[in-house]
Design brief:
Mean pLDDT: 75
Structural class: alpha/beta
Oligomer: single chain
Number of helices: 8
Length: 280
């Protein structure tokens, strides 16, 4: 049975001399089979001719790329102010000590040694400078500087451009539809958007347009004010409303309180005058 299987393998090898059996196992099996009764069969099927085998390989390389890709300088921008420890990215840095005195350009090895000797912490002050500026600080100095930067960020918030929304109306709009439009405008004003209101001009009474804008402004007067007054633009009346600033809201509230006090005083005076007239 074993001889039959071996013969079958040899027959398969003779069909294609470039198969794995003839290329890889021919030299290994030849001396073994020559000692067996199948030597004559081996001579007729495989033969004694040897062949060269070409194996695709990579060219010799020393590990160094002949044409290396240029690597640009990686720019790191710190997101928070704090201790960087021994993580100094540049070999040469400019160092400032804990008293604010410049120590000049130093090798990072010397910076780490000085930081360890003085038992201080290292912070990155200016990454865009050449070389980058680092500073030695105590823990209290770092904490005080973090508080100072937070207060400065609150005092000078980043202002973003206000988004402008637009709503179009007709001068003959129904009362119910106008109330719905005013609600939409109110929602945008609450989100501190500016709202452009365009009203198509028709052959109506000239007083209709100012009255329509007056009704809209009165409904939104608690938080909104005019960014641009109503004006004629082509065949439309246009105005822009914006959300009041904190100072404007505070001023408006103070005015309301003052007006309420004056009204209460007038009512009180009026009631006292009525009472005195009734007595006389």
């Amino acid at each position: 049975m074993a001889a039959f299987c071996l013969r079958k393998l040899i027959n398969q090898a003779t069909r294609n001399e470039t198969t794995c059996l003839s290329r890889c196992f021919g030299g290994f099996l030849k001396p073994i089979i020559q000692k067996t009764p199948l030597a004559s069969l081996w001579a007729t099927t495989i033969g004694t001719k040897e062949r060269l085998v070409f194996v695709p390989t990579k060219s010799f390389s020393s590990g160094v790329d002949a044409n290396p890709k240029p690597v640009g300088k990686k720019k790191v921008t710190p997101t928070t102010f704090g201790n960087v420890g021994r993580r100094i990215l540049n070999e040469i840095v400019h160092l400032i000590d804990e008293k604010g005195v410049s120590l000049g350009n130093m090798h990072r090895r010397d910076v780490i040694q000085l930081m360890t000797e003085r038992e201080l912490k290292l912070v990155l002050l200016n990454v865009d400078a050449e070389p980058p500026v680092y500073g030695l600080m105590t823990g209290k100095q770092i904490h005080a500087e973090q508080i100072r930067r937070k207060e400065k960020a609150k005092a000078n918030p980043v202002t973003r451009p206000t988004e402008l929304k637009e709503i179009r109306l007709s001068s003959v709009i129904a009362k119910h539809d106008l109330e719905i439009k005013i609600k939409h405008i109110q929602q945008w004003i609450d989100k501190k958007y500016s709202v452009k209101i365009s009203v198509t001009k028709r052959n109506e009474d000239p007083e209709t347009m100012p009255l329509l804008f007056a009704n809209i402004f009165e409904a939104l007067s608690e938080k909104a004010t005019y960014q641009s007054q109503p004006r004629i633009s082509g065949n439309k009346y246009v105005c822009v409303l914006r959300h009041m600033s904190d100072k404007e809201l505070q001023k408006q509230n103070m005015k309301k309180v003052k007006d309420n006090k004056q009204n209460d005083t007038l009512k009180k005076c009026g009631s006292e005058a009525t009472t005195s007239n009734e007595l006389h």
